[in-house]
Amino acid sequence: MKKVLLVDDEILIRETIRDTIQWEKEGFIYCGDASDGEVALPMIEQYQPDILITDIKMPFMDGLELSSFVRKNMPDVKIVILSGHGDFEYARTALRLGVEEYCTKPISSADLVQTLRQVSDKIDDERRAKEQIEQLKQGESRHAGLTQSKLLNDLCSGFITTSEAVHLSSKLSLNLLSRYYVVVTADFRKMASADSVPDDIFDYMKQDEHKLNLKLEGDNILVFKRSKTECVWILKRESPEHIKQALETFQHVQNQTTDQLPYSISIGIGSVQDRMQGIHVSFLEAMEDMHWRRLSRQNRQAMLESRNGSFEQSVFLDRAQFVDFLKIGSPAKAESFVRTFASVLQHTDWHSSLIGYYILNDLTLEVFRSARDSYPNIANFDTTLHTMQNAIESIRSWDESCAYLIGLSEQYWQWRSGASDKYGDMLVKVKKYIHDHYDKDYFSLQDAADHVNLSPGHLSKVFSQEIGQTFIEYLTQTRIRKAMELLQTTQAKSYEIAFLVGYNDAHYFSNLFKRVTGMTTKQFRKSGQLNKDLPTSEREEHKGFVSYS
């Protein structure tokens, strides 16, 4: 219901209007009345009426002065002039002030109610219009946010080329260009061991996430939410030293997270890259790092619980020392190294305590994380980890723990020795598969990954590291090179060539061709020159891979 306030210096008129209209039945609330504008002002402030009915000629502050003040300070209040003066100048002044209606006295209750209904309908229409505009603004804002998030997510996932990323970012006024990049991921997760979780647990998480954004805000950082619990940051800096300084914020947050909190923050940091296409590699590394840090944190939390919340830090095995030995050591030195390295476990009670299990599991997770980083193309990775963890459970002596660590070392060296051969054969198959299927518009990373029995993430990371290009960039350049050949050797039209190289949208193909080659298809056909920036068979053979172009 709309609130109505009446201002008139004649008490009889005020009483008549007040008492002859059934306000609530008509859909209104009668807030009260005043004898002049000066008396009315504090009432207007107090009641915030939707409709103001006012006479013109009143002492102290007349209706026109009151209307002028209300229109300036409360523009949403609708004003109805009710006056015994029918002079045109009064009406024109009132209309210039923006009043809704100018009614002359005397006026019947029925006519006044009809006027109020019309004004009320107008208020409803304006409010609906404002709501629609606000919804549109919110929708545009959400759409803009999602568009930026989608672009950054696609860039991290390797779904778009560098040229496409730059092109799309310009439409969003988003600056992606920088000399160095690094990707950081963070997972905000409720601790499974928390007996009781406060209702505002997610508010706590949001606060930490907000602190990170505040400390890293500016043009040199891009951030998006990958899921309900995961955040991704792309840090841009002009030197590796500046990258290192920016990463200190994340490292500080990771170190400040204590096991007493009902939630944890697992932060993963990728490698520093000097090309935009390297963002994809850095992202995959950050996701892997975050995953293993979360597993390690869960393992340590379980260890804390097994020791009633306390343990000697010296009981931990030096994970970095063990991994360094695996990278440069040899099987001949394994036994002597392991027995020295694991000497701190000699007094561990393997029968009545789980602490030995958690210590070895912690080290195992670190070894597997390092192996995944170094050799992404590992078959049956999760199955092997599960087998190793089951083996830990059967250990009942220090000698058995040493034997386990030697076996863990041998597993790592097995991965190390088989990695190089697998990469070469696998990538030859993938590249041939690309050259055999590039003309299919539906062709994707998933198709190629299925062909070589790998996950899309692992294939994408290996491909980027070994080839020096993301999968989508290699596919795009393969298509563009074939299009260049067709432009040189056939009279096919541009839209026909677009279809022949896997693009159903001829307009998109034309724009992409120009961004990659620097020329339109028509200009290229006239010049007849191959773009030297595209990969040639000689360059590919130099990297040790066969070209099928």
From TrEMBL:
<feature type="compositionally biased region" description="Basic and acidic residues">
    <location>
        <begin position="535"/>
        <end position="549"/>
    </location>
</feature>
<keyword id="KW-0805">Transcription regulation</keyword>
<dbReference type="Pfam" id="PF00072">
    <property type="entry name" value="Response_reg"/>
</dbReference>
<keyword id="KW-0238">DNA-binding</keyword>
<feature type="modified residue" description="4-aspartylphosphate">
    <location>
        <position position="55"/>
    </location>
</feature>
<dbReference type="Pfam" id="PF12833">
    <property type="entry name" value="HTH_18"/>
</dbReference>
<dbReference type="InterPro" id="IPR041522">
    <property type="entry name" value="CdaR_GGDEF"/>
</dbReference>
<dbReference type="InterPro" id="IPR051552">
    <property type="entry name" value="HptR"/>
</dbReference>
<dbReference type="InterPro" id="IPR001789">
    <property type="entry name" value="Sig_transdc_resp-reg_receiver"/>
</dbReference>
<keyword id="KW-0597">Phosphoprotein</keyword>
<dbReference type="Pfam" id="PF17853">
    <property type="entry name" value="GGDEF_2"/>
</dbReference>
<keyword id="KW-0804">Transcription</keyword>
<feature type="domain" description="HTH araC/xylS-type">
    <location>
        <begin position="428"/>
        <end position="527"/>
    </location>
</feature>
<protein>
    <submittedName>
        <fullName>Two-component system response regulator YesN</fullName>
    </submittedName>
</protein>
<feature type="domain" description="Response regulatory">
    <location>
        <begin position="3"/>
        <end position="120"/>
    </location>
</feature>
<keyword id="KW-0902">Two-component regulatory system</keyword>
<keyword id="KW-0963">Cytoplasm</keyword>
<dbReference type="InterPro" id="IPR018060">
    <property type="entry name" value="HTH_AraC"/>
</dbReference>
<dbReference type="InterPro" id="IPR009057">
    <property type="entry name" value="Homeodomain-like_sf"/>
</dbReference>
<feature type="region of interest" description="Disordered">
    <location>
        <begin position="527"/>
        <end position="549"/>
    </location>
</feature>
<dbReference type="InterPro" id="IPR011006">
    <property type="entry name" value="CheY-like_superfamily"/>
</dbReference>
